[in-house]
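Researcher: Sequence recovery benchmark, item below. Answer with residues only.
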């Protein structure tokens, strides 16, 4: 059996390591550094250099009061406090890091500032003393304790990663995890299969269920089963335990042959899934839940149905979903016309945007947590990477079809989705302002990819009654947020205010996971209780195989 977290702190650290989601584009670190250089202004440079000089003088004379952040894993060893040499080394590095960041003027346009900040973070994390043996007291102690065996094992791991992991340190030991065995194990069946997706109908866990079904539309990027991790941390398991009829889409991992799958094709596929659920349950309406990019697709689908006067959606839940791409988000680092053009050309040539390349973007957006943390663990300490389900899921990446990649980039650049009738899908002009079904919208406090204030804007982009919940954690930690974590909390209110900050000031802070508030909200809006179905699927949609199905296991060589 796979290892389970020994304590909540360890599992929270694993979640923090994947607290982002692959962006829609390629990136160029060289361009980011060029942007950083262009951002520097003479006045800022001389002011920052002068402050750095005085900070280093304070370090040299022992009068500096610079201290590491207590949450910074790099400076946890006692030597950083007790040893004058290491203390001075840490202070000098932190002074240098502050100077690197301070070189970026505050009045830069957001996209330029985001690129410069990205370069600054990569550079500052790279020059940390803890990345070297001499500059890492914990690694020095380990070397003396083992007689250098840690360095032997670390060197072997380095060469292994160089040739087998495209030069990046391995982030997880996934040897003990298997989809269908200890991941994605909530009972259910595949009741519909197309070239693009499999539809999972989960087995009810209660004698009675709410009559209106809930359908999850996961992101088109990554495997769906971050919503169905190990028992106790599964959104699917929790949802059926609360008496809701639950279905989810499992997208197929595209190959170069699927290069023509774009937003339009995915929207049509999602509509087919909803219509299948409608037939299976005999209900005229369904509730939809969209996570991340799946929330964007859900919004487009709702806009399309509204234009067609098809009354299929009862209510909608949109989690960490950003619809206005001009907001202040880390994605702005990649909004560069030349970069976007190159990214489009690359995927058009190959037919797909490789999952491995998406993973690299993801990794370098959090260099301290996703590169140097494992560099130290694997190569200096000589330890194996941790074995956590969320890290195993993170490694199990999928590709983007060329057309979807291009569609995302175009939308990211034009920002047409929030403009009434500016964006068309399947022959219909989409107007999100016409969507008036009731909504439950979720943001995450420390989400740097879809900032919570940008997620809050959804309540204004789509008018009508909304409840907004602000969860602790980041982009993924907010979603993998099961009840029982004593550190979990969220703010929630259906009193929508003009600004996100005003909403926050008036919202109620509640302990526990937003999952609990969402299921209470859903149970009030999903009809009456009825007897749970004795069999999965229907006469038209007969079970094909047990969940999690076949598509989630497919590996595409590219």
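Model:
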């Amino acid at each position: 059996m796979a290892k389970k977290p020994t304590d909540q702190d360890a599992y929270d650290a694993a979640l923090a390591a994947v607290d982002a989601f692959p962006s829609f584009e390629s990136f160029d670190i060289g361009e980011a550094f060029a942007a950083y250089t262009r951002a520097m202004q003479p006045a800022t440079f001389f002011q920052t250099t002068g402050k750095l000089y005085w900070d280093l003088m304070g370090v040299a004379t022992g009068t500096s009061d610079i201290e590491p952040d207590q949450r910074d894993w790099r400076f946890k060893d006692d030597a950083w406090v007790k040893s004058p040499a290491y203390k001075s080394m840490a202070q000098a590095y932190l002074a240098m890091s502050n100077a690197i960041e301070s070189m970026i003027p505050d009045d830069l346009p957001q996209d330029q500032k985001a690129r410069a900040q990205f370069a600054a973070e990569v550079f500052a994390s790279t020059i940390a003393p803890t990345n070297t043996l001499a500059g890492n007291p914990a690694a020095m102690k380990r070397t003396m304790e083992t007689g250098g065996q840690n360095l032997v094992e670390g060197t072997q791991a380095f060469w292994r990663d160089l040739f087998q992991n495209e030069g990046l340190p391995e982030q997880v030991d996934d040897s003990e995890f298997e989809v269908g065995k200890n991941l994605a194990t909530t009972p259910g069946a595949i009741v519909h299969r197309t070239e693009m997706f499999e539809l999972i109908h989960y087995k009810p866990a209660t004698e009675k269920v709410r009559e209106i079904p809930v359908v999850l539309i996961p992101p088109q990027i990554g495997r769906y089963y971050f919503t169905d991790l190990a028992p106790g941390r599964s959104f699917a398991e929790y949802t059926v335990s609360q008496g809701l009829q639950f279905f989810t889409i499992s997208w197929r991992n595209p190959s170069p042959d699927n290069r023509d799958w774009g937003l339009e094709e995915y929207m049509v596929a999602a509509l087919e899934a909803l219509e299948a659920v409608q037939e299976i349950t005999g209900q005229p309406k369904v509730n939809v839940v969209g996570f991340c990019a799946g929330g964007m697709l859900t919004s487009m689908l709702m806009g399309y149905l509204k234009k067609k006067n098809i009354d299929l959606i009862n209510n909608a839940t949109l989690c960490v979903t950003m619809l206005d791409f001009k907001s202040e988000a880390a994605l702005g680092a990649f909004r560069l016309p030349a970069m976007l053009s190159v990214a489009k050309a690359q995927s058009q040539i190959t037919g797909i945007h490789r999952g491995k390349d998406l993973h690299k973007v993801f990794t370098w957006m959090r260099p301290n947590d996703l590169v140097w943390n494992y560099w130290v663990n694997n190569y200096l300490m000589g330890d194996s990477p941790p074995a956590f389900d969320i890290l195993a899921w993170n490694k199990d990446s999928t590709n983007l079809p060329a057309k979807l990649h291009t569609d995302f980039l175009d939308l990211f650049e034009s920002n047409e989705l929030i403009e009434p009738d500016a964006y068309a899908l399947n022959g219909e002009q989409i107007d999100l302002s016409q969507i008036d079904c009731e909504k439950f919208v979720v943001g995450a406090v420390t989400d740097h990819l879809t900032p919570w204030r940008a997620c809050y804007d959804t309540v204004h982009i789509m008018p009508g009654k909304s409840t907004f919940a602000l969860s602790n954690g980041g982009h993924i930690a907010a979603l993998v947020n099961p009840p029982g974590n004593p550190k979990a909390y969220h703010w929630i209110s259906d009193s929508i205010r003009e600004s996100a900050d005003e909403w926050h000031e008036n919202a109620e802070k509640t302990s526990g996971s937003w999952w609990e508030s969402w299921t209470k909200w859903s149970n009030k809006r999903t009809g009456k209780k009825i007897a749970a179905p004795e069999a999965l699927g229907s006469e038209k949609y007969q079970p094909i195989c047990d969940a999690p199905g076949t598509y989630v296991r497919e590996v595409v060589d590219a």
